[in-house]
Design a protein that fits this description.
The complex is a heterodimer. Chain A is mainly alpha-helical. Chain A has helices spanning 4-24, 34-46, 53-75, 79-83, 86-115, 118-123. The relative contact order of chain A is 0.19. Chain B is globular. Classes of the chains: A mainly alpha, B alpha+beta.
Chain lengths: 124, 808
């Protein structure tokens, strides 16, 4: 039980730069980051980290997408999102967080399901 | 179970794939959400305008012969300095694409009838109609003609290469927002697209006709009443060409009912004309010689009234190469400046309002193989148009052609105008023309001779050009191809079987209405008649006289004119019609017959000067009153089975003063016989009642009733500016109403250095996510002007610039 918490945090710390790095290569399709995330899912499962994959992935994805949108909006002085008022701006950030979260969570979980070994589970 | 792999992964994997797919595509009306909210390539990236604000941005190897500099001033007006003409138009294309790519691209689709490629549903009929009225074909024909003029094709090609150089370096994150929202990508620009935009403008300015309605009215009213109610020349005309001859010639004035026009030709049917064009929209332009100005130099003013939209129809810029240095507004997608000025001259444009469309009723064989013409059966020719559709099979449309033009509605395409079945459309827009060359020449003009040479070859659509030169030459021309017709020809639906209904010659250029240095020291064009009725040729159009009359009145009353006074004239909110009508109406009211609240209203109205100012409290009352009088008088028109327009306001006013017992004043729904006085009384009581009701509901200031909507081209309210309270009225010089208004206000005083002011209802950039999208609208609405930065030299431009680009 004690071990699980740091592993979850470690996973988030791995996921965040992975998503940002892949997303930043804008010539790749917008959804490309799900592939490295899936690989992370495989790796942490092989390493037998006990991580609640979907919630942790969701959290990481949500954080990156929502805060990156927020960051760029501030950087470019936010004309567009302000045009629609604060409510819609918040909604947009929320939607982007959910999209980022769903995709990251789902792909991390897929990675885990792919690598998950039932025998290993029994050994534990 | 020997399986080492866990089959369970298939479930999350397929969920993931489905999710990615769904978020990447447009689902019904929902845009591709995933792509849009992606922080690295989505909407938020469209907020990035660093290139417009960078102090020096260098773009190498984009295809220019020499290095070309672009300086942006604080309003982001580009000032382009090229070393040769080809580079100049290349850079204009590049910069325009940066500022307005989606708009120009989208309007080219609109013009060509290609919207089904963008929207998966509901626009096939629109596209078919565009093809059938001949837009795409006309553009191709004009392009072929331009290809024979080396100067034009060089400019077109350079501009196209410039636009494409910009498109080439775009990636998804930086393509305009609308592409992301509608989920498609910019395709390469082409010369044809530029020509399509010229045709789009031509259709906007000459795409209106009343042939069908006028045919019905002539038949229903009879010749005499028709001429009384729909006169070509009323008592209030103030033509462009002021001549003293007052007697009408053979050609103009009274329209005889053409012999062919009878009920056997015209089996009477109901017909609803659907047109978004408002014939009341028009423009003002005038030039005043230095003899009437404070500085001694001439002043030219122009405010073309067009549909207001976002992004705006105009893009401001300065174009400079060794042969020219011109400032003005351009149309995104089209090389050169369309309305503007240089060191020596200034020119303005208003719509000619000429009738450029005629319909021919045909006799076609059942199998669409033959049609009757001049007693013979001729073969119908046809073309097949390919209309690509998003997510659906390509549609092939067969369009038949006659000597007159294309058959727009036939059995396979009854369209909205189902009663227009098997009519051929003859439209001046179909003929090849090269307007761009006129504008390119105007951009280099230094004097009257250059101006005259530039507009000489201008064909379509008919426009009024006004001109002023530093040497105090002023001029106005009604320029374009006007067919020579017999009196009344083309005012009504024509007989397609007859050869004598087909015209083929034009009024010679030298005989077109024109005016140079008149005694009054000014020229005015505001969509009024170009001539008096003594002009030897017949012509027809949708002319409006009120603004021209008012402008002349104001110019006559002033001597020391300067740019500030000219701005005040452009912003003048007086309706001359209201001024003329008000005393007639108020004097008719018998004060003994009205109640206390009506007496108060009447007292206020008597003091009113016909001014539609922002905060005026009487304008709406007058509007209500006059609307009632119109409705009560012309109630007969509502009983017609066809869609009929009612006579002009001046015709009604004239009827009130000269023939108050006229049968039209009798209200059909009452048993007593009303006269004009009765109608005016009734109208007043009803108007005061509704006015007081409005007053109880809030303010009765005019701006509450005169609101402006500036819609985004997609019509999405979120991207538009709607309900802007505004001064002005359609009949006033400041003609603003609904979504029509002065699309570009310009005042130029020539001199040692041109002193110019201007503003339009929009912003320089079409980027809806940026700060320059609608930045001028508030100032425009408040009647403010910007001082235009006309730079004499590149050094001047560079020292005033807030950002600069070097293109190579």
């Amino acid at each position: 039980m004690k071990k699980k918490v740091p592993n979850s945090i470690k996973t988030i710390f791995i996921l965040v730069p992975v998503i940002i790095a892949t997303n930043s290569i804008i010539i790749l399709p917008w959804w490309s980051f799900v592939i490295p995330v899936l690989v992370v899912g495989v790796v942490i499962t092989k390493k037998e980290w006990k991580v609640a994959c979907f919630p942790i992935g969701f959290l990481a994805g949500f954080l990156v997408w929502a805060s990156a949108n927020w960051f760029f909006d501030i950087k470019y002085s936010g004309i567009f999102l302000d045009r629609f008022g604060f409510g819609i701006k918040l909604l947009l950030l929320l939607v982007s967080g959910i999209v980022g979260g769903l995709l990251t969570g789902l792909s991390l979980y897929t990675g885990r399901s792919l690598a998950f070994d039932k025998k290993a589970e029994i050994k534990l | 179970m020997k399986y080492r792999f866990n089959i369970d992964f298939l479930f999350p994997l397929s969920a993931l794939i489905i999710l990615v797919f769904t978020l990447s595509h447009q689902i019904f009306i929902l845009p591709p959400v995933g792509k849009l909210v992606d922080p690295f390539v989505g909407v938020v990236q469209n907020e990035d305008e660093q290139d417009l604000n960078s102090s020096l941005l260098i773009k190498d190897d984009i295809g220019l012969a020499d290095s070309t500099q672009v300086f942006f001033d604080e309003r982001k007006v580009p000032h382009i300095y090229a070393r040769n003409t080809t580079d100049l138009y290349f850079a204009q294309g590049y910069v325009t694409a940066r500022l307005r790519l989606w708009q120009m691209d989208f309007l080219a689709y609109v013009s060509a009838g290609r919207l089904s490629e963008i929207f998966s549903d509901g626009l096939l009929d629109y596209d078919r109609n565009q093809r059938r009225i001949g837009m795409l074909e006309a553009a191709k024909a004009s392009l072929k003609m331009m290809e024979r003029s080396p100067e034009s094709i060089q400019a077109l090609t350079a501009y196209t290469r410039g636009v494409n150089a910009y498109i080439k370096q775009l990636n998804y994150s930086k393509i305009p927002f609308e592409y992301k929202m509608l989920d498609y990508e910019p395709e390469p620009w082409s010369n044809l697209k530029t020509v399509l935009l010229m045709k789009y403008m031509a259709a906007m300015l000459s795409g209106y006709d009343e042939d069908y309605m006028m045919t019905n009215l002539m038949l229903a009213l009879g010749e005499e009443r028709f001429n009384k109610l729909f006169p070509d020349f009323g008592p209030y005309t103030s033509p462009l060409m002021s001549d003293s001859a007052s007697k009408c010639g053979f050609a103009l004035g009274y329209i005889k009912k053409p012999a062919y026009l009878d009920y056997s030709f015209w089996a009477s049917r109901s017909f609803i004309s659907k047109s978004s064009y408002d014939p009341r929209m028009g423009s003002n332009s005038w030039a005043v010689s230095g003899k009437k100005t404070r500085s001694g130099y001439p002043i030219l003013c122009n405010d073309p009234h067009l549909g207001l939209s976002l992004p705006a129809i105009w893009l401001e810029m300065q174009l400079s190469d060794p042969d020219e240095n011109v400032y003005g507004v351009s149309i995104p997608g089209v090389p050169a400046v369309i309305i503007g000025f240089d060191k020596d001259i200034a020119w303005g444009i208003t719509n000619g309002e000429g009738d450029a469309r005629d319909w021919y009723k045909l006799k076609v064989s059942e199998d669409y193989r033959k049609y009757q013409f001049n007693g013979k059966w001729l073969n119908l020719t046809y073309t097949v148009e390919e209309i690509k559709r998003r997510g659906q099979k390509t549609f092939y449309d067969t369009i038949y052609h006659t000597v007159q033009g294309p058959i727009v509605n036939d059995r396979s395409f009854p369209g909205q105008q189902s009663k227009f079945m098997n009519y051929a459309l003859k439209w001046e827009l179909h003929n090849p023309s090269n307007e761009i060359l006129t504008y390119m020449k105007l951009n280099r003009a230094r004097n009257y001779a250059d101006y005259a040479a530039a507009i000489r070859e201008y064909c379509s659509p008919i426009q009024n050009f006004t001109f002023a030169c530093k040497d105090n030459t002023i001029a106005a021309n009604y320029q374009g191809n006007i067919a020579i017709k017999w009196p009344g020809e083309g005012k009504f639906v024509l007989d397609g079987t007859r050869g004598d209904h087909l015209y083929s010659h034009y009024i010679p250029t030298d005989s077109l209405p024109h005016l140079i240095n008149p005694k009054c020291n000014y020229v005015v064009s505001a969509n009024q008649h170009p001539t008096s009725c003594s002009y030897p040729y017949y012509y027809d159009g949708y002319y409006i006289e009120t603004r021209a009359g008012r402008i002349k009145q104001l110019l006559d009353s002033e001597i020391d004119l300067d740019p500030r006074k000219m701005q005040a004239i452009q912003l003048d909110n007086v309706s001359q019609f209201a001024r003329d009508a008000l005393p007639v109406l108020t004097n008719t009211i018998d004060e003994g017959r009205i109640n206390e609240s009506e007496r108060i209203a009447l007292r206020n109205l008597k003091k009113w000067k016909g001014v539609y100012n922002y905060d005026d409290e009487n304008a709406e009352l007058f509007e209500l009153w006059w609307k009632n009088i119109r409705e009560y008088t012309w109630d007969e028109f509502r009983s017609y089975s066809f869609d009929a327009k009612t006579p002009d306001d001046y015709v009604l006013l004239n009827l009130i003063t000269t023939d108050p017992e006229n049968e039209y004043f009798d209200n059909l729904s009452t048993s007593i016989k009303e006269n004009a006085g009765e109608i005016i009384h009734k109208g007043f009581s009803a108007a005061v009642t509704s006015y007081n009701e409005l007053k109880r509901g809030g303010s009765v200031q005019w701006s509450r009733f005169n609101t402006v909507n500036i819609m985004h081209l997609t019509n999405l309210p979120l991207l538009s500016r709607t309900g802007i309270p505004s001064a002005g009225q359609l009949k006033a010089i400041n003609s603003i109403s609904g979504n029509v208004g002065p699309s570009w206000r310009m005042v130029v005083e020539l001199g040692e250095r041109p002193l110019a002011y201007g503003i339009y209802a929009g912003g320089q950039s079409g980027n809806v996510a940026g700060r320059y999208f609608d930045s001028f609208i508030t100032d425009w609405n408040q009647g403010k002007y910007y001082r235009l930065n006309y730079f004499i030299s590149i050094n001047e431009a560079s020292s005033h610039a807030t950002s600069a680009w070097v293109l190579k």
